[in-house]
Amino acid sequence: MSNDEDPILTTTAAARLLGVATSTVQMWMESGAIASWKTPGGHRRTHLSAIQGLMESPPGQASATLGQAIEAALSPVSPDEFAPREEPGYPVARDEATRLVALSASGLVDTPAEARFDRIVRLAAHVTGSPIALVSLLTSTRQWFKARVGLEAQETPREWAFCSHAVIDGNPFVVEDAAADPRFRDNPLVQGDPKIRFYAGVPLRDRGGQALGTLCVIDREPRRLRGAELQALIDLADIASEEIAKK
């Protein structure tokens, strides 16, 4: 069967078909529950046929339901992701609508990994001694990672994003002990994997100055950044912003 007859799906597309979180699909793929393989860039892929085998529909509805799901899964990012929510459930700045328009215009969300951003997160992890580093972009529904080290998940719900606070603050945003911070102690990313205790994020801006997301580092232990470490993170965020401005 050719790829035209059996399309290749990303983890996000498979999750849309199955109606589950992308992190759930990633876990199923890693465990072998869904047949998959890794691209040279380390991203999981599967065939549509593997997902079809997991889908169940009532008799007489399977064709229409599956057809609609396939169309949604293979379509570009939903425009709703770039429209502000009426009741977002997370903190937003007054210019959130403008920020989302700028993020949409950047064309970065759901694009393949790029060496220029992968190098930046590796350096951020190294210079701060952090096990996790991310280039995080914030749509209205999710926090999607353009580059990441130390974290398997490609995205999380926007409601879980520490980076929302960093984008609003506009300056380096540091949480030294998330478990002791009332804003974050009940966050699923603190209570469960990756068990965040420390977070430091610096906004990433486009050429118009809009904060599209952050360069952030995360640790599983409470800690502080030394002055030189924070400055290195700021410098790397500036480099990442310059790369974003080239798009």
UniProtKB/TrEMBL annotation:
SUPFAM superfamilies assigned: GAF domain-like, Putative DNA-binding domain
GAF domain: residues covered: 112-246
InterPro entries: DNA-bd_dom_put_sf, GAF, GAF-like_dom_sf, HTH_17, SinI_DNA-bd
GO molecular function: DNA binding
Coiled-coil region(s): none
The protein, known as: Excisionase family DNA binding protein
